[in-house]
Amino acid sequence: MKNLPLAIGLLALCVLTSQTASAGKFSHLSGNPDLRSASALVLDGSGEIIYGKDTDTVRPIASITKLMTAMVTLDAGLPLDAPITVTREDRDVVRQTGSRLDYGATLSREEMLLLALMSSENRAASALGRTYPGGLAAFVQAMNRKAEQLGMRNSRFADPAGLHAGNQSTARDLAIMVRAAGKYPLIATASTTKGMAVQPFAQRGLLNYNNTNRLLKNQNWQIGLSKTGYLNEAGRCLVMQATIEGEPVSIVLLNSFGKLTPFGDSNRLRRWLLAGR
């Protein structure tokens, strides 16, 4: 048994090496990023929590809802090249917001999904729900069923655009949704497209749309998935998947006040992570 101490030493070294390899780059941080968002959650690539703040409070999530809308649409396997025409049924009767997609505007289902994710176009999202098999009611049921399947235990969905304050979730649940949405290549591409032009009317010119996440124009950020949201009840919201110094992270920021606060919080998070790596 003279080699027992050596064996124990080698075993301890293997365990230490394994722990070091599995530990993320941002696993030993100190201090606080001093975020303004009421709820926040940052996860590493393995799903481990890097930072959390009030992660289980149920809050309205506004247009973050559209990530679930996109997943339910794609899960249905409906033809993406099929034309969808905007009707009066797609108007916003909750907030009375307008849209550049007038009644009669026709785009493919894929273009509607792109506009819903990239520029948070409410009528595009509503049209996706309305044209789902069984109609809008069936679509909302599918949204809640999908949330249950994903294990989003504290989430409820009320409409595909996120206009109802009844679309509610927690930072912890949204991290689950972001992770699931990131597995859909079209959602990742659509949500990070900086801009696009569409022609919903044959006799009119192009309509140009831009992404609602200004961080996509910031060269310091590598963003793989993105969605913003805003309602009076929800405040400013932002969810992202990003890569920081080669490390994948998921970021959820809810209930920020001030138009630029989620972007400021994102930059504060990034500086905090990089300072402690």
- The value of Rg in angstroms is 21 Å
Let me know the CATH homologous superfamily.
DD-peptidase/beta-lactamase superfamily
**How far apart are the termini?**
42 Å
- Please write the string of helix (H) and strand (E) elements: HEEEHEEHHHEHHEEEEEH
Which blocks of ≥5 consecutive residues have pLDDT under 50? 1-23
Mean pLDDT across every amino acid position: 91
Total helices: the number is: 8
The major beta sheet can be summarized as: 5 strands, antiparallel
Coarse morphology: globular
Total count of domains: 1
Q: What is the CATH class?
A: Alpha Beta
Q: Looking at CATH, which topology would you report?
A: Beta-lactamase
Q: What proportion of the residues form beta strands (DSSP E)?
A: 15-25%
CATH architectural group: 3-Layer(aba) Sandwich
Helix content: 25-40%
Class from helix and strand fractions = alpha+beta
The number of distinct β-strands equals: 11
Spatial order of strands in the largest sheet: 2-1-11-10-9
Can you offer a commentary on this structure?
This protein is of the alpha+beta class. The chain has a single domain (28-276), classed as DD-peptidase/beta-lactamase superfamily (Beta-lactamase, 3-Layer(aba) Sandwich). 36% of the residues lie in helices and 21% in strands. It has 8 helices and 11 strands. The chain has helices at 4-22, 65-75, 109-118, 122-130, 135-150, 171-181, 185-192, 261-276; strands at 39-44, 49-53, 59-60, 83-85, 106-108, 168-169, 195-198, 207-210, 222-231, 235-244, 247-256. A 5-stranded antiparallel sheet has the order 2-1-11-10-9, with helices on both faces. Strands 3-6 form a two-stranded antiparallel ribbon. Strands 4-5 form a two-stranded antiparallel sheet. Helix 2 crosses helix 5. The longest helix is centred in the first third of the chain and has 19 residues, at 4-22. It starts with a helix and ends with a helix. 43% of the residues are buried. Residues 1-23 have low confidence and may be disordered.
